Amino acid sequence: FPSTQQPSARLKTFLSMDRNPAEPLMASSGSDLASTACSVGGKPELAEDEVACRIAELREEEARWAALEEARKDTSVATLPAETSLGEVTPASSIATASDHHISRLENRVPPVFEDRSWKIDDALQGRRPTSFTGIAAEVPPAEALRDEHILSVSALANKLQTHPIEGLHVAAAQERRAQDGPNVLTPPPRTPLVVKFLKQLVTGFAPILWAAAILCFLAWRPLGDPNPDPLNLTLSMVLVAVIVLQAFFNFYQEYKSDCVMDVLNRMLPARAMTIRGGVPLQIPVSELVAGDIISLGGGEKVPADIRLINVKDMKVDKSTLNGESEPVRCTVDHSDRNILQTRNMAFFGCNVTEGTGTGIVIATGDRTIFGEIATLAATQKPEQSTLHREIQRFVWVIVTLALGTGLVAFAGWFFWLRQWRPDFLNFQTQVVNCISLIVAFVPEGMPVCVTVTLALIAKDMSKNQVLVKNLATVETL
User: Fold this and answer.
1) How many other C-beta atoms are found inside a 10 Å radius of the C-beta of residue 136?
2) Would you say the pTM of this structure is higher than 0.70?
3) Which of 120, 111, 110 has its CA nearest to residue 335?
């Protein structure tokens, strides 16, 4: 239409109607179209020659679609002319089948390449600028992210990994790499034996001061209590030992139960993956994957290795386990960033596919994956004490200082003053027992059990809300 003359709403409605391409346009005459092009007031908005020109264009287009339908029926392979009536090149993958006539033909003219590159529009709308498009002043990624598997072309990457992008690895080559690289599993951290775990619980938290109090009470009973030992000192010593063991048992049982639940969750993870070896689709255990394998992924699956995507269809991956991104990332076959952790054509071990499907080449397995490197670095670091542990240690030192200070002051008062003025009032053994009693009186015997039981009850309530507490000390942080 001329730039100064717009079609009426009725004519635009007619031109955008969804019709069967096989339905002839000849049923509508020029007079009918001319009347359709009129406004409500009855005045023509388009000249008759312009309407006739548009009718000719529509007839030509209808003839092309009819020829396409005949070709599809004969060869079952549809092809489009080089250019449609709107001057747009339309690939063969966008042709509607006979059962898809209800879909607008204008929608079918949108090339699929626009879907693959629409992430650039999303990034522009959200204010993100990928580093590969920021020019010379672009920020250089860190050394651990300067890898080139996502930048190489599919053929170059296949040559580098000595594989085929369609047929995959041969079975013999896969077995050789499996023997060389090992299984596709993360090396588990060294597990502490159960006996050692229980013994550690006997010497952590309030346990040291309780052990000291129990030993002093036992010494006050015998030999310092001879020849007339007080049975109450022995009873108090046994009670303190029972408190220590009970507290250690609570902590040990909670950690043991959490470890058992985590083992069950690990066994529930998918253990097989769909791969192509020698041109044959196979389902193999995830632990048997090697670099160079061609695998397929679908919605709801966990990515079994670091994968360079070579074919995607509406695929999104949740990378929150690696970079904390709250929303799934749309995947593409072209790299969108020089940083391998930020590009869209990579799927990393441990991430979840939220929707869509895709195919990719395995570039790293096991401890050589990004997730494996993070796990290795985390395992080499010494565990830090929690806030609760530090607070308990500070409290224990305060109690120990007060208890020992009071005991020493009492003993010094007896030694320098009371023994001089009243030598027959208290002997040495009796005074030592009195000082030990003062020290034990400062020990909060019931507090360790109260703290442990409180944390256990909170952990039980949290488990009802689908929160698994692996360590009681983390309850304070959560």
Assistant:
1) 4
2) no
3) 120
